[in-house]
Amino acid sequence: MLKAQAQALIACSPNQAFAFIAVGFAYNYPRWSPEVQSMVAVSDGPLKVGWVGRQVRVDKGRRTESEFRVVTFDAERQIVFEGLDDPFRIVYRFEQVETKTRVTFVFELKRLSPGLRPFTGMIRRVVQDGAEHMMVRLKAMIETEIAPVAD
Predict the structure, then answer these.
(1) 92 to each of 6, 65, 115, 119, how far by Cα in Å?
(2) Coil, strand or helix: which one is 6?
(3) pLDDT, tens digit, for every residue of 14-24?
(4) Which residue spans within 20-133 are E strands per DSSP?
(5) Is the Cβ–Cβ distance between 52 and 42 less than 8 Å?
(6) Which 8-state DSSP code applies to residue 103?
(7) Which of 44, 57, 99, 120 sits at 20 to 30 Å (Cα–Cα) from 109?
């Protein structure tokens, strides 16, 4: 399994961070993850368990399409997505730290295709680097677009 994790301490409440990510997901996700070229809600309505989305990504020149489903939706605490056609899992966790929120992002790829296995180390570094940069963008967006909580 290939796994990457990154965190950001964001100057807002867990409710605000969760709303930015969950409520505005279809619109905001491509903004904080610019590798996402297209994001379409397959399901109608807001994010909830069972909601399905379809994305087109271009990572380091490699184009992929995938569908994913929300498997956990615990308001202000955690959202978990799982790939329907690819073996991936994405987790966003929200934890209050004084007047701020620690958002933890976890990406897990359960297996690589046989042709990519020789490049596991390189892929792991690229995925970890991508996770860290994505969290920097997410933090900046939330803190710019949402009024920060006073310390």
Answers:
(1) 10, 21, 30, 27
(2) strand
(3) 999 999 999 88
(4) 36-41, 52-59, 62-74, 78-83, 88-97, 100-109
(5) yes
(6) E
(7) 44
For residue 82, the one-letter residue type is E
Between CA 32 and CA 134 the distance in angstroms is 6
Alpha carbons 142 and 101: distance in angstroms, whole number: 11
Question: Any idea how long the chain is?
Answer: 151
The three-class DSSP label of residue 86 is coil
Show pLDDT as tens, one digit a residue, over the chain (151 residues): 789 999 999 999 999 999 999 988 999 999 999 899 999 999 999 999 999 999 999 987 889 899 999 999 999 899 999 999 888 999 999 999 999 999 999 999 876 666 666 666 666 787 788 899 999 999 999 999 986 555 4
CA distances (Å), origin 143, targets 1, 64, 90, 100, 119 = 33, 30, 22, 11, 36
Distance between CA atoms of residues 17 and 79, nearest Å: 12
Round to whole Å and give the CA distance between 75 and 94: 9
Predicted TM-score (pTM) of the model is 0.88
